[in-house]
Predict the structure.
Amino acid sequence: MSRLLALLALLVASDAAAQGATLAFHPLELRELPPLQRQRVQAQFAVMLARVAQVRLAGSAAIEEALQKPAGKDCELRDQCLRFLAEATESLYAVHARVRPDPLGLQLVATARVVRSDGALVRTATASQPQAEGAAP
């Protein structure tokens, strides 16, 4: 899974890295994964994002505060929510990403949307990786 997370981190952070901009990252969505794996993947992904050169990440407290407000709801579906997240954290970009198993459980699929603080959808990204045989999602 680490290769999938690394690819996703590079895809979503590339625009911010090119500009040395701040990136507000909605907490990685991992609903379909077991709780213990969720925590491990969240931590691993945060480290990978922090290692992307030239990208500054918005503080987690500012992100959590923004997501508690009505405008910070439904970022999975609404670009306007990501715009609000970027504005509320004084970031140029905001990202929502999700990792889930495919319907057959054969692959892990990562999807992400990057929205600029002016509301423009900058990038959508999808990457997948076969799951190890016999491994839990």
